[in-house]
């Protein structure tokens, strides 16, 4: 297995090559790779639980300190490791087309009617469950995830990335309405790639006169050239509005493509 670089509290989006100190006396040595073994995957699941359940308050129906679902065994798990501590401090999972065929569904099918995407389903790599340990959000951990994901895209000749980009509902309905209006006006996918939410949101608030705040992960996808495939769905586990995002790699903005696709990670 080669080694490489739908909710995130990450604070940066443009990949860089260096790591910054976590604290005044600590400078982490960060590396990125795919999980090699069960212990790596378990460490990623524990980090997801810490961020999504303990920090964000998601209800993932488990109380054993791990975020686990039916997709984990079909996914490749990207991990950022603090090599000084041998500790997983960031993760992102990738559901490749063969993984989706193995479980007979894509993750996004639980939230959206995606019939329009079926013609390209064998070319979609679905990403999600991105998170960074709280102590490493001012380090280079997010940059490592982005650069590693870019290496995976390049090495696997990926044509489409897709994922559910989450907007917490506690950000306020007014902001969500403004964000939705901006996304529909500037980033809406062509008609042939539109989807419909299974659980829509009843009210998104009045978008007039409000400046939307875009979550960092969604902002990163949009900068790379991604489309939003339609109206948001309500995710009851995370109590969030999820937008299905589709990034055709050939559409990637050139000024970001060099950073995203240029770095090669350890083998």
Summarize the model shown.
With 267 residues, this protein is of the alpha+beta class. The chain is built from six helices and ten strands, in the order E-H-E-E-H-E-E-H-E-H-E-H-E-E-E-H. Strands 1, 2, 3, 5, 6, 8, 9 and 10 form an eight-stranded mixed beta sheet that branches. A two-stranded antiparallel ribbon has the order 4-7.
Percent strand equals 15-25%
Largest sheet, if any?
A: 8 strands, mixed
- List the total number of helices: 6
Instruction: Identify the quaternary structure here.
Output: single chain
* CA-based shape: globular
What are the segments in which pLDDT stays under 50 over at least 5 consecutive residues?
A: 1-25, 263-267
| Helical percentage | 25-40%
Please tell me how large the radius of gyration is: 18 Å
Element string (H = helix, E = strand): EHEEHEEHEHEHEEEH
Tally of strands = 10
Question: For the record, what is the CATH homologous superfamily label?
Answer: Gcn5-related N-acetyltransferase (GNAT)
CATH architecture: 3-Layer(aba) Sandwich
Q: Structural class of the secondary elements?
A: alpha+beta
Indicate the CATH class.
Answer: Alpha Beta
Mean pLDDT: 85
CATH-defined topology: Aminopeptidase
Number of domains as seen in the coordinates: 1
Give the termini separation.
9 Å
Structure description:
The structure is a single chain. With 267 residues, this protein is α+β, with helices and mostly antiparallel strands. The protein has one domain: Aminopeptidase, CATH 3.40.630. It is 27% helix and 21% strand. It is built from six helices and ten strands. Strands 1, 2, 3, 5, 6, 8, 9 and 10 form an eight-stranded mixed beta sheet that branches. It has a two-stranded antiparallel ribbon with strand order 4-7. The protein is globular. The relative contact order is 0.20. The N terminus and C terminus are likely disordered.
